[in-house]
Amino acid sequence: MTGPVDLAVVSRTMENLIRQEDKPLVLQDRATGQALTLSPETGGSPDGLLPVFLAAGEVVWREATGKGFALDVTQDPKALLGYRVRGIGNGPFSAVMLSVMEATAQVARPDMLLVNDLDAVWQAASQRFRHAAAAAAGSRPSAGAAP
Known about the structure:
Elements: H1 7-21, E1 25-28, E2 35-38, H2 40-44, H3 50-65, E3 71-75, E4 83-88, H4 93-107, E5 113-114, H5 118-139
Parallel strand pairs: 1-5
Antiparallel strand pairs: 1-2, 3-4
Helix pairs in contact: 3-4, 3-5, 4-5
């Protein structure tokens, strides 16, 4: 990895990608079932949906490489979903954005991008990563006592 990634550039790029997709960006309220259509600006905002996109992208990258982006995410009661991303500790920018784009492509629907679907990407990739790590640990010789 190459070091910190400029969060402002990632934010603007995510906003532009959402805008170019030309599909509604939708978040379904799990409590009420109400579908909220959000702006590309909200999608790319560090206190909007960017933490969700980055978390999904990071798990795609972690599954592929075994490494994360060192996301700096903190709770923020004023943020849309209660979390704000403050920084991305490891790059490169291209890996961050390509991973986010892959996660987004996995859930894109013909008529919308339902943000809630990113949770399934995160869950599935996390589970595969854990299984692979457990399998690798199981195939290593144990460090027990020698005869």
